[in-house]
Specification:
single chain, 211 residues, alpha+beta, Glutaredoxin, Glutathione S-transferase Yfyf (Class Pi), Chain A, domain 2, globular
């Protein structure tokens, strides 16, 4: 397996965690988002979406972090990232989608770059945008994690795909110095995850391309 990744990409971070949890060996291929390497023809020829992450295996390429994690779940069932109970599986997917589809797109590099260069927002305005949507999304996540089913982790007492999404989002919030005090359940789950070597080893500062 080859994972196209960038140390600060939260979507790639999700997949690094999942690969580690599954105990799967992979080669990292680094694509520097801040330098625009994802927009270069060479990467575009490989991945027409021009996004990270991408997972290459057996001459085939998969994109989109949640699809990649679902693929890993279906091809390497143990340890599971999704519960066996249909309702529980749906809840884990719901938590994952809340982060990946409701929070992350409003704060990723493309959005922030457009705010600065396309709409002329200054650094203070961009940071205010970032913190607003982090607060909005984490408040929703905090409320959802307060529902029955949350255990030591986002759902139950074993890490799931939802935790693979939660941890990178908290890292992003910490990077932008967001106030995380209003989200004690989110932070309790985050702290529990970071005690696991698979999560710790996947964090941005421990990647070979970290700057």
């Amino acid at each position: 397996m080859r994972l196209y990744t960038y140390f600060r990409s939260s979507a790639a971070f999700r997949v690094r965690i999942a690969l580690n949890l599954k105990g799967l060996a992979y080669e990292s291929a680094y694509v520097h988002l801040a330098k625009g390497e994802h927009r270069q023809p060479a990467y575009g020829a490989l991945n027409p979406q021009g996004l990270l992450p991408a997972l290459e295996e057996g001459g085939r390429l998969l994109t989109q972090s949640l699809a990649i994690m679902e693929y890993l779940e279906e091809t390497h069932a143990q340890p599971p990232l999704l519960p066996t109970d249909p309702f529980a599986r749906a809840r884990v997917r719901s938590l994952s989608l809340l982060i990946a589809c409701e929070i992350h797109p409003l704060n990723n590099l493309r959005t922030l770059t457009h705010l600065k260069k396309g709409l002329g927002q200054n650094e203070e305005q961009v940071n205010a945008w970032y913190r607003h949507w982090i607060a909005d999304g984490l408040a929703k996540l905090e409320a959802d994690l307060g529902a029955p089913g949350t255990g030591k982790y986002s759902h139950g007492d074993a890490p799931t795909m939802a935790d693979c999404c939660l941890v990178p989002q908290v890292f992003n919030a910490q990077r932008y110095q967001c106030d995380l005090a209003p989200y004690p359940v989110v932070m309790r789950v985050f702290d529990a995850c970071m005690q696991i070597e698979s999560f710790d080893r996947a964090q941005p500062g421990k990647q070979l391309d970290a700057q």
